[in-house]
Amino acid sequence: xxxxxxxxxxxxxxxxxxxxxxxxxxxxxxxxxxxxxxxxxxxxxxxxxxxxxxxxxxxxxxxxxxxxxxxxxxxxxxxxxxxxxxxxxxxxxxxxxxxxxxxxxxxxxxxxxxxxxxxxxxxxxxxxxxxxxxxxxxxxxxxxxxxxxxxxxxxxxxxxxxxxxxxxxxxxxxxxxxxxxxxxxxxxxxxxxxxxxxxxxxxxxxxxxxxxxxxxxxxxxxxxxxx
Length: 227
Known about the structure:
Layout (H helix, E strand, L loop, with lengths): L2 E6 L8 H16 L8 E6 L11 H12 L5 H19 L2 E7 L7 H10 L6 E4 L3 E4 L5 E7 L16 H11 L4 E7 L8 H32 L1
Parallel strand pairs: 1-2, 1-3, 3-6, 6-7
Antiparallel strand pairs: 4-5
């Protein structure tokens, strides 16, 4: 059965617009799925939950360099690298992804960046060749990302900062090989004279993507079975 990994990058729970939109999209995909095919599983990773992510500090960084240089590992290093690998394995095991990403200070929330830095390792999510450069290794998967921001809205004056969040995230997806990616924005969520209409428009846009997302998810699962 195919799996959707939902990465929730908001710590605000039911008060989060991005999270509520992600839940709406997942329910729409489920409604569009073929029950006879068994549907799909959904796993959710709340990156802000206590203990959700291992640290990647001095010990883990040393373990990484030891791995790629062939040096002996310490017990602490082995454990740190194993913890990081477990996070990547969960990422790699999924067939599709739903991300909800509020923009913080023009960028992605730090906990999401921590998750990205853990899973983005050579030989895991990307390959490297001195002549050919980088190659994404997460091919054959799809993603939908929901981007929200409180006061920033692209192209709408006055200009409240800049968006380095959605641009960074789109580039990262492409870097690891997830080229089947859809991005939906709901902004602004605070300085908005008709936030209800904007929210309904975002929900409607997500609904239009649900059937295609479910179809590609099912077709990808059938292709794996036929292989």
